[in-house]
Amino acid sequence: RIAIVAFSSNSSLCGAFNASVLKMFLQTVGEYRELGQDNILIYPVGKKIEEAVKKLGFFSQGSYQRLADKPSYDEAAALARLLMELFLEKNIDRVELIYHHFRSMGIQELLRERYLPIDLSAVQNEDGKTGMVNDYIIEPSAAQLIADLIPQVLSQKIFTAALDSNASEHAARTLAMQIATDNANELIQELTKQYNKTRQQ
């Protein structure tokens, strides 16, 4: 069973921001289509993706519009805890995130990342071999440290994705409104010229 957490905005007028999220969401669902609709759990963060999920005939696992509008750590942590519990109880086997990463005012990168299970294959030691570096002492124990840290890291990841998505939405809206303003100014200039020519004739 797969869980997909997709982040969109609550309102429109932000260019292709929501359309690109929906496109990647459909692509992701298409990859898991053979699992059956009952084995794909959708957690839509934002009104636009929530409405799209309902139109597509999927059942959303909750409404997280507040998290999209004003991201708070408590709400992000609650969602993270829910996903972790489902994963630990083996009710879901994989969790994926779809969100925009804010790089700059002009660049918002759409990402699709695996949230659970955690990928430790990228950890390398000094010899370049994959594995954990173990030349340090951990108290009380490595297992206890990981057990305490991982839930916090996963909660922070959801919160970061929500903040990233929110910042990207505002940047995309600013850019869309700037383009609309420029187009309107050009139209005004053209109409003014046309008016003056007609008046002079």
Features:
four-stranded mixed β-sheet, alpha/beta, 201 residues, 5 helices
Q: Give the rounded overall mean pLDDT.
A: 91
Output the helix-strand order. Answer: EHEHHHEEH
> What is the SS-derived class?
alpha/beta
Based on Cα principal axes, name the global outline: elongated
| Tally of helical runs | 5
Describe this structure in words.
By secondary structure, the chain is an alpha/beta fold. Helix content is 52%, strand content 15%. The chain contains 5 helices and 4 strands. The chain has helices spanning 17-31, 47-55, 65-69, 73-88, 142-200; strands at 2-7, 40-45, 94-102, 108-116. The chain has a 4-stranded mixed beta sheet with strand order 2-1-3-4. Helix 4 (73-88) packs across helix 5. The longest helix is centred in the last third of the chain and has 59 residues, at 142-200. It is elongated. The termini are far apart.
List the helices and strands and how they pair.
Blueprint: E1 2-7, H1 17-31, E2 40-45, H2 47-55, H3 65-69, H4 73-88, E3 94-102, E4 108-116, H5 142-200
Parallel strand pairs: 1-2, 1-3
Antiparallel strand pairs: 3-4
Give a nutshell description of this structure:
With 201 residues, this protein is an alpha/beta fold. The protein has 5 helices and 4 strands, in the order βαβαααββα. It has helices at residues 17-31, 47-55, 65-69, 73-88, 142-200, and strands spanning 2-7, 40-45, 94-102, 108-116.
